[in-house]
Amino acid sequence: MTTPLNLAETSALTSNLPRPSPDAPRRIGRRLVATVAAAATVLGLLAGSAIPARADNDDLAKALAALAIVGIIASQVNKNRNRAQAQQPLDPYPHHKPRPSHHPRVPSVCAIEISGNSGTATVYGESCLRDEGFTYRLPQHCARTARIYGRNDRIYSDQCLRDAGFRVGGPRY
């Protein structure tokens, strides 16, 4: 007579045993269901052909119940078949989107060039930037007040905006 093993001994013995794959029970179950469904269909057809022309209500009820069971089994097989989704094929040439820029581009349509004795400077008016949909916070240490087209406005030099991390020039954004 053998002595029962405790939990530690049992786990030590079974730790080296191969583990079944998670797909194995599902495949066996599908095959079993398909076999049972096929057998029920064959039996239903044989029983249906053996029913005499004058069957009473009990025989008709039994035949309908058998057909209903076959239908339920077939629908379960189809439902399980639909759950298994095919993997999407890997794209051999993945198309990576460009990384979003963390440095917003200042709209170039707002650039105003000012010529003077010491050269040309490019500045951007705050009201134009806001009209163009530029909603980022502008650095206050770059702001200077100036009169543009008859209105007082804050302007920002392109070099100061560049130093603050903005991208200056190019297309709208």
Q: Could you explain the architecture of this structure?
A:
The chain is α+β, with helices and mostly antiparallel strands and 173 residues long. The protein has two domains: 24-83; 105-168, no CATH class. The protein contains five helices and six strands, in the order αααβββαββαβ. The strands form two sheets. Strands 2-3-5-4 form a four-stranded antiparallel sheet. The protein has a two-stranded parallel ribbon with strand order 1-6. The model has no long low-confidence stretch (mean pLDDT 76). The chain crosses the membrane at residues 32-54, 60-77.
Summarize the structure.
Residues 1-18 have a biased composition (Polar residues). The protein has 173 residues and is α+β, with helices and mostly antiparallel strands. The chain has helices at residues 7-14, 24-50, 57-83, 126-131, 158-163, and strands spanning 105-106, 111-116, 119-125, 143-148, 151-157, 167-168.
Q: Which spans have pLDDT < 50 for at least 5 consecutive residues?
A: none
Mean pLDDT: 76
| Main sheet specs | 4 strands, antiparallel
Write the H/E string, N to C.
Answer: HHHEEEHEEHE
Radius of gyration: 40 Å
Rough outline: elongated
Tell me the helix content: 40-55%
Number of helices: 5
Distance between the termini: 85 Å
Main sheet: strand order = 2-3-5-4
Q: How many beta-strand segments?
A: 6
How many structural domains does the protein architecture include? 2
Proportion of β residues? Answer: 15-25%
> Which structural class is indicated by helix and strand composition?
alpha+beta
